[in-house]
Input
Amino acid sequence: MVPPSRAIWVPPNITHEVVIVEDAYLRTLYVDASVVPAGLGACRVVEVSPLLREVIAALDEESISQQRERLLGTLALDEIIRSQPLPLSVPMSVPMPNEKRLRALCNAVLADPSHSDLERWSSKAGASSRTIARLFRRELGVSFSQWRQQAVLARAIPLLSQERPLAQVARKLGYQSQSAFSAMFRRAFGESPRAFFARDDRDSRDECSGRESEHA
Output
């Protein structure tokens, strides 16, 4: 999950895909491999500075001249290099299993992660809670509660980016209090939900991608 104010740098020749799970505005920069700086050889998460955000927006303008595009591109790369790399867990993913029953259960939890009772979900999947717990460990390497927390956070990011009240988001995700939800969020991301989104005042998603140019 890539929240507002964050971007993913993907270097050349890295196979990847983008899946849109919520209404979002996405901008992508394609950088010719010949000009990718040496320090950007691996995937990284970066914080989008106000300057980088404006540069990306300027590069998206129609009928931009080659000279202006070159200058803005150089500045964008410089900002990306200067940006403090963030842990890859900051935008987070929710791993999905292959086993049919467990995948159906995981899809149901993603649709409504507010229920934490494994017995309830197991009965819906037509298996015992012991079987489901074993499948989680075998297929995903985590417990049900650990996986569900990732599902909760994945659902929380788009809700919070819509500027919904924190208490409302906490209730929707099955937390009895705003403080309990905030404590869980802080453990996962190292800061409160308010601090996490404080740097961004627009609902957007940015991705910076270094790939071979289609016209190279």
